[in-house]
Design brief:
Structural class: alpha/beta
Main location: cytoplasm
Helix content: 40-55%
Strand content: 5-15%
Oligomer: single chain
Enzyme class: isomerase
Distance between the termini: 41 Å
Strand order of the largest sheet: 5-6-7-8-10-12-13-14
Mean pLDDT: 96
Protein name: Xylose isomerase
Shape: globular
Catalytic activity: alpha-D-xylose = alpha-D-xylulofuranose
Low-confidence stretches: none
CATH topology of the largest domain: TIM Barrel
Keywords: Carbohydrate metabolism, Cytoplasm, Isomerase, Magnesium, Metal-binding, Plasmid, Xylose metabolism
CATH superfamily of the largest domain: Divalent-metal-dependent TIM barrel enzymes
CATH architecture of the largest domain: Alpha-Beta Barrel
CATH class of the largest domain: Alpha Beta
Number of helices: 16
Number of strands: 14
Length: 433
């Protein structure tokens, strides 16, 4: 045990009227919505990297946080784990996620990295067995170290590819040992800055083979969790090969992996790609590759990924509506890929950021459930496309332009525009908030 969170109580649900900031107002894990408890719908997870590894820097300034576990060595890594699991207990979050470098110190070489990871994996396993906290997903950090400045799978140096592949193997091993329900491949630098020094075709082939090798290895060792790719646009490289859901799906189809890999979609990344969060979720559902979500928000006045804790309930209601339309989470969940502002220095800030995020998610989710239960949005959608259910419309799709043109001429087809009724539907959404 540590004293980092001393005097901070376990967070309980007290209802909307509570004035206690260390309490949930909307998130009651035992509340049954659409037939099951909210904890099983939302499947909250804490991100190890932002909450325990990030030092408070930004592109224009360095470290602002001082944490007793910052530093090298396994003793610091174990202290970090102790504090992390204390926070999971305070919040009652059922899951966490981590990169290898979040949990273990960086070694001098691959062998030392592997020893450190295995040692901390055993320590995490003991903590998990003691507390009941589970691993939503594991992943490898293939972007921070200078060796990955030109990518990992897409690197022009085959030795970097080899180091990255060996690292992913160890991280899949760790995720499997810890009973992780998913494994994520996050291509932080799988892209390019200029075509002047880039062989795009070669790099895409390397990325496709790397992903296939990861899937092959995971299945070989008996890992039956979901393999996920997280779409990531723009930063840090200008042109990312995994830009958005549509790009990822095309990539998966190209390499025959669309049945093996799904997507982990982040709100902030959706915005950087020029989409809404609900757009990316809906497209993933339609393509059959929806898996999990990273919940955060961006500052819409900034052009980069600010990873702020979510607080926009209307946005989250629309996002969770698409999650529910996809059938809800199976192995996936709601991971808070969000970090404190670099001026928020206190332990209480870390707890309250998650309390607020969990409450906002719960409020958005319950609004989404109400919209799904009353069925009016779906009724309006069905009515708008009802004409396509007719035999004539279906025959048109089965035929060709000649038959269509003949029908238009024979029947004097001359359609009048019909309202999309967008404002009415926006009002309907707002009535459920």
């Amino acid at each position: 045990m540590s004293d980092f969170f001393k005097d901070i109580p376990a967070i309980r649900h007290e209802g909307p009227q509570s004035g206690n900031e260390f309490a949930f107002r909307h998130y009651d894990p035992d509340e049954v919505v659409l037939g099951k408890p909210m904890r099983d719908h939302l499947r909250f997870s804490v991100a190890y990297w932002h909450s325990f590894a990030w030092e408070g820097g930004d592109p224009f300034g360095g470290q602002t946080f001082e944490r007793p576990w910052f530093g090298d060595g396994m003793e610091k890594a174990r202290l970090k784990a102790d504090v992390a699991f204390e926070m999971f207990g305070i919040l009652g979050t059922p899951y966490f996620c981590f990169h290898d470098v979040d949990a273990r110190p960086e070694g001098a070489d691959f062998a030392e990295n592997t020893r450190n990871l295995r040692e901390i994996t055993d320590y995490l396993q003991n903590k998990m067995e003691t507390t009941g906290t589970k691993l939503l997903w594991g992943t490898a950090n293939l972007f921070s170290h200078r060796r990955y400045m030109s990518g990992a799978a897409t690197n022009p140096d085959p030795d970097v590819y080899a180091f990255a592949a060996a690292t992913v193997k160890t991280c899949i091993d760790a995720t499997h040992q810890l009973g992780g329900e998913n494994y994520v491949l996050w291509g932080g630098r799988e892209g390019y800055e200029t075509l002047l020094n880039t062989d795009m075709g070669r790099e895409r082939q390397q990325a496709g083979r790397f992903l296939a090798q990861a899937v092959e290895y995971a299945r070989k060792i008996g890992f039956d969790g979901t393999i996920l790719i997280e779409p990531k646009p723009q930063e840090p490289t200008k042109h990312q090969y995994d830009y958005d859901v549509a790009t990822v799906y095309g990539f998966l189809k190209d390499f025959g992996l669309e049945k093996d890999v799904k997507v982990n979609i982040e709100q902030g990344h959706a915005i950087l790609a020029g989409h809404s969060f609900e757009h990316e979720l809906a497209l993933a559902r339609e393509l059959g590759i929806f898996g999990s979500i990273d919940m955060n928000r961006n500052d819409y006045q900034s052009g980069w990924d600010t990873d702020q804790f979510p607080n926009n309930v209307p946005e989250m209601a629309l996002a969770y509506y698409e999650v529910l339309r996809a059938g809800g989470f199976t192995t996936g969940g709601t991971n808070f890929d969000a970090k404190l502002r670099r001026q928020s220095l206190d332990p209480e800030d870390l707890i309250l950021a998650h309390v607020g995020g969990m409450d906002a998610c719960a409020a958005g989710f319950k609004a989404a459930a109400r919209m799904l239960e009353d069925g009016k949005l779906e009724e309006a959608r069905t009515a708008r496309y009802a004409g396509w259910d007719s035999e004539a419309a279906q025959a048109m799709l089965a035929g060709g332009f000649e038959e269509i043109a003949a029908r238009v001429e024979a029947e004097g087809v001359n359609p009048a525009p019909r309202s999309g009724r967008q404002e009415r539907l926006e009002n309907l959404v707002n009535r459920n908030l």
